[in-house]
Design brief:
Chains: A alpha/beta (about 375), B alpha+beta (about 350), C alpha+beta (about 90)
Largest interface: A-B, 59 and 44 residues
Helix content of chain C: 25-40%
Number of helices of chain C: 2
Structural class of chain C: alpha+beta
Number of helices of chain A: 16
Low-confidence stretches of chain A: none
Radius of gyration of chain C: 21 Å
Number of domains of chain C: 2
Largest sheet of chain A: 6 strands, mixed
Distance between the termini of chain C: 53 Å
Number of strands of chain C: 5
Order of helices and strands of chain A: HEHHEHHEHEHEHEHEHHEHEHEEHHH
CATH topology of the domain at 68-166 and 280-300 in chain A: Rossmann fold
Number of strands of chain A: 11
Oligomer: heterotrimer
CATH class of the largest domain in chain C: Mainly Beta
Mean pLDDT of chain A: 90
CATH topology of the largest domain in chain C: SH3 type barrels
Largest sheet of chain C: 5 strands, antiparallel
Strand content of chain C: 35-45%
Strand content of chain A: 15-25%
CATH architecture of the largest domain in chain C: Roll
Mean pLDDT of chain C: 88
Radius of gyration of chain A: 21 Å
Strand order of the largest sheet of chain A: 4-3-5-6-11-10
Order of helices and strands of chain C: EEEEEHH
Shape of chain A: globular
């Protein structure tokens, strides 16, 4: 596949690994923000092949993982209503709420449907005027434009039976929160490539300056991830802290202006609770008043939500990079993808699931990974 | 009749009691399905059940060894690119029997029809079944039809069962994989699952991908003609190649190492998987088999397979090892290693 | 977080007042919303996330990036080979 295969070339990967080994003289802790990057790292075995001095800390860039428990519980309550067709990306189906997940709601008779795009949900609303169609609008800045367009579309079509349960989160406030945490160990960031395709890179310059930390906009294919890591290490080794773009083929400094326009029309910034982390001020988006009619939380007035997290789940620490999944006592025992205690074990790119699925509970040495 | 579940001795700390109802994942062919059999059905059957209950059983009757199998078909949509539920139903059981090295002889077909289902569609399905049976050389000799209320049957569900005779000297089964054995797949993987997804509501995409549903008994006959030294045969249906290999690794208590770069995948299937965030190694196949054979026989078996229409793109994808028993590892395209675990429920499309 | 796949725009049309395209991903064709890329054309490549084209792929940048990868380690190898020859 063009623009994919070239960035998976094994020979070039070996070159990049060798180069990274060559330039690394000291231990560095680097965080990849985006869950998609975490997935790629674990899936391709990249972290195993990096020099020991380089520690990759997996960031909270997994919107599935950080969607607040309260919102999940609201989703479950709404999806259980007989008049509702509840549409969601596949990722959310197994995320555990306080008592169950969307899969269980489906098994109990809820009309829960997986869609590929939020526009599919709008189409369902057109096709089923007698039902309430609710779309689970989660995601970072990459997904928000799609969700915004769905709301605009519903508005344009005058659909009265479409609404969205919104839980958008933003990357830059998360980086601030991480850098200001007293236990922070992150020294450099791989910024999320597709988030930057939408929002541009300019939001990260103030962060570079405020925290004196290198931030390299990075893609997702193995070569892209390695290049991002290489550039962060180069900066760290030479004491620099700059904003760099290693994903230029897909990211421009100004980002996608048309998308940003629609985003500011439909959404406004708000405080958001991040599951496992807590409230990060001004770190999320919600629908503006003009589009409040499409807000599922308002329409369904779900109250009396009593949330209850598993007491032994340490997702929060994993999300903040304070704990590796296989350091958690419940990892692989009480907590498995089959019986997840927290969202990081469910999302395909949650760090815990990635570790489990790709076998980090089996030490690398046991399967003879060559160093 | 006892209806209490005995949780003693369940390996998983939070087993079925966590799911008081059946969820879709129980039919996914992964861990949930396996648990259902192990922890609900087998204990209930007790002495009347078989210890290693799988799709196909090898039984001895009157001095003959028979392979006896059953399979049920609940696919949605009923008609998909490359076929319909009818030929899946015939080929599915034909293949289960062939995976024991037997030539399938006779099939039964049970139909659960939904009130209101179109007779035209049913006739098309039946026609496909007849054609598939003729193609596979089997006879449909027994059948049953029931009708359920509208809204309870999704059109039609089909169960087929059948048997064949296992030839002398043939001993093929999931426990027979040995360290050093070579793992061969008979052709491109992921075709069927993607063909189905491409027409599923909410995910539609235009794709030149057809289901690979096909009878494999002809291919198996040729393979056995080339060598009797075949240890394991398995058709990787739901759960894909990954789940099939994991089951065999566990049953034989061996490890496996496959090379991702050697997996044959059609470009369009690969693209669809990229788009949906899925991994072809977990996607269902309906006309492919995995063969595990001693290294001495691998090359000529491969050549023989490639000479058959069902094996044109057969490829060696890995080997069996004594290391890490029960675990399937894969060498990634950039030289790393990852564990290919069994799927939990069904593989879902993702955005992240 | 953002599964975005590159595809090529084959056709552009309008649906319900929104600019849409048929995008080809190695043989898979999907209807994609092009509203956020008003200047993109048939033949261009784009990254698609949840049915939306979010950015145009720049061929020039792509080639430069690959050229960079290919050059990595090369200069080093040359220097090492030179040094070995000198020492010999």
């Amino acid at each position: 596949m063009k623009y994919l295969d070239e960035y998976r070339d094994p020979e070039l990967a070996q070159r990049l690994f060798a180069e990274i080994r060559r330039i690394t003289t000291r231990p560095w802790a680097i965080m990849e923000v985006c869950g998609g990057q975490t997935h790629s790292i674990i899936r391709n075995g990249i972290d195993q092949l990096l020099p020991e001095e380089i520690e990759l800390i997996h960031g909270p860039g997994c919107p599935v993982c950080v969607t607040p428990l309260e919102i999940i519980d609201k989703a479950l309550a709404i999806a259980s209503r007989p008049e509702v067709i509840f549409c969601s990306f596949g990722d959310m189906l197994r995320v555990p709420g306080s008592a169950k997940d969307l899969f269980r709601v489906k098994s109990e008779g809820g009309d829960v449907r997986i869609v590929y795009s939020p526009l599919d949900a709008v189409r369902l609303a057109q096709q089923h005027p007698d039902r309430e169609v609710v779309f689970f609008g989660i995601g970072f800045e990459t997904t928000a434009p799609a969700n915004a367009m769905a709301v605009l579309q519903a508005h344009r079509l005058g659909l009265r039976n479409f609404s969205m349960l919104v839980s958008h989160v933003l990357v830059p406030p998360a980086i601030s929160a991480i850098m200001e945490s007293p236990t922070n160990r992150v020294q450099g960031f791989l910024a999320a490539g597709h988030v930057c395709s939408v929002m541009g890179t300019w939001q990260y310059q103030p962060l570079v300056e405020r925290y004196r930390v290198p931030i390299v906009v990075t893609g997702f294919e193995p070569l892209d991830v390695l290049e991002g890591i290489r550039r962060v290490i180069l900066q760290l080794e030479s004491g620099r802290a700059e904003l760099d773009n290693a994903y230029e083929r897909a990211v421009r400094p100004e980002g996608n202006v048309a998308a940003q326009k629609v985003l500011s029309e439909v959404f406004e910034v708000t405080d958001r609770a991040w599951r496992g982390i807590g409230v990060i001020p001004q770190s999320g988006w919600r629908l503006r008043d003009a589009y409040r009619a499409y807000d599922a939380e308002t329409r369904f007035a779900v109250s009396d939500i009593q949330t209850r997290e598993s007491p032994i789940c340490r997702s929060g620490e994993v999300l903040q990079g304070m704990l590796k999944p296989n350091q958690c006592a419940a990892f692989g025992k009480e907590c498995t993808p089959r019986t997840p205690l927290g969202a990081t074990m469910v999302s395909s790119e949650g760090a815990c699931a990635a570790y489990y699925h790709y076998g980090r509970f089996i030490k690398a040495e046991e399967v003879g990974v060559a160093r | 009749m006892s209806n209490g579940l005995n949780f003693e001795g369940w390996v998983c700390p939070l087993p079925l009691r966590d799911h008081p109802n059946i969820v879709m994942g129980h039919g996914g062919g992964g861990k949930l399905s396996a648990e259902l059999v192990e922890h609900l059905f087998l204990p209930a059957f007790a002495e009347a059940g078989a210890v290693d209950m799988g799709d196909a059983a090898s039984i001895t009757v009157g001095g003959m060894r028979l392979a006896y199998s059953t399979d049920s078909f609940v696919v949605r949509p009923l008609f998909f690119p490359g076929g319909n539920i009818g030929e899946l139903a015939v080929n599915g059981t034909v293949n289960d029997i062939a995976m024991r090295g037997a030539q399938p002889l006779f099939l039964s077909a049970g139909f659960i029809l939904e009130e209101g289902m179109s007779l035209d569609r049913l006739a098309a399905i039946a026609g496909s079944m007849g054609a598939a049976a003729r193609r596979a050389g089997v006879k449909l000799v027994a059948g049953d039809t029931k009708v359920v209320d509208r809204g309870h049957g999704d059109g039609v569900y089909i169960n087929t069962s059948g048997f064949g005779i296992i030839p002398e000297g043939v001993d093929i089964g999931p426990k027979r994989a040995q360290p050093g054995d070579v793992i061969i797949v008979s052709g491109t993987i992921g075709d069927h699952g993607i063909a189905i997804l491409s027409v599923r509501e909410g995910l539609e995409f235009g794709a030149p991908i057809q289901s690979d549903t096909a009878p494999l008994n002809g291919l198996v006959a040729d393979m056995l003609d080339e060598t009797r030294n075949i240890h394991v045969l398995r058709d990787p249906t739901r759960g894909g190649v990954a789940s099939a290999l994991n089951e065999i690794a566990r049953a034989s208590q061996v490890g496996m190492v496959i090379d991702e770069r050697k997996l044959p995948v059609q470009d369009a299937v690969r693209a669809a998987c990229e788009l949906l965030g899925m991994d072809p190694i977990y996607v269902a196949n309906e006309g492919k088999l995995i063969a595990i054979v001693p290294p001495s026989d691998a090359d000529r078996l491969l050549a023989r397979m490639r000479a058959h229409p069902q094996g044109r793109q057969a490829a060696i994808i890995g080997h069996v090892t004594a290391d890490h028993p029960g675990i399937v590892a894969a060498r990634t395209s950039i030289g790393g290693t990852r564990i290919v675990d069994m799927m939990v429920g069904e593989q879902l499309p993702r955005i992240c | 977080m953002c599964l975005g796949i590159p595809g090529q725009i084959k056709e552009i049309y309008e649906m319900n007042g929104i600019r849409m395209g048929k995008v080809d991903f190695s043989g898979i064709v999907k209807d994609v919303c092009l509203a956020y890329l008003p200047d993109i054309d048939v033949g261009d490549y784009t990254i698609v996330h949840v049915g939306f084209a979010i950015t145009r792929l720049d061929e020039q940048s792509a080639l430069e990036t690959l050229a960079l990868f290919r050059s990595i380690g090369l200069l080093d190898e040359e220097l090492r080979t030179d040094a070995e020859e000198e020492a010999a």
